[in-house]
Amino acid sequence: MYYILLFCILTILFLFLIAPGKIPQCASAAFLGKNFAHRGLHTQDQKIPENSIKAFKRAVDNGYGIELDVQLSKDAKVVVFHDSSLNRACGVNGNVSDYYFDELKQLPLFGTDEHIPLFEEALACITQETPIIVELKTGQNNRLLCEKVLDILNSYTGTYSIESFNPIIVGWFRKNAPHIFRGQLSASAKVLSGGKFSILCFMLSRLIFNSYARPHFIAFGITGRENIALKICRALGVKSFAWTAHDPSFEKHSDSVIFEYYSPSPAFNSSSSSLTDGNT
Question: How would CATH label the architecture of 23-259?
Fold first, then answer.
């Protein structure tokens, strides 16, 4: 009898910890059954670079939603860039947070004529009808990033949501902007930890921090098997976004898909085809 009681208590506790938030009815419709271009509709050879104005315009022209990444420069400007380091995309040592924006905007993205844009510049080239998923990167001043992103979004009349791997960031929006459609990024513990064991990554992969963030959707990495926590969250009503897909098969089991390097239909239940521009 004692073990049954203990099992019931632990089950209730687990359900409490991973339970999602109540989804705002007006917020979710624009995001469901949609394909989102990962870092804009960039090409695999980076001739159209990721997180560039050209990639965002290309996504808009093709009818896709857009996923993009934001973080702070040294002078606290919100810039659109994925990596913390500038080495891969710009061939420069140091992190984004080490440089003022006036310095960052001089750096070519992947050797092209595209440069790191401000968040406001990216929004200005995206139509209001295009849904946007804004990923906030973890940095040295997460609170300031949240405040600045919210201030920018409050002046934007388009359709947007936010997400982050950091549940503290997602939780900040739960407290300060509960009307915004918010998501918790996650993946298998192995992917999150880079193959090393980490109790923190294990807990994040099992969505334990939902108790703080209460996300409306879970954006879960497609590598590895879907774990029991995500299955239970779905049963409890959370929306499931798949990242990063390289073929249309994930549309069958996801509410939305974040994709790259192929050309799906903007909305689900339509035929998909491969890109034919030779840049994938």
Answer: Alpha-Beta Barrel (3.20)
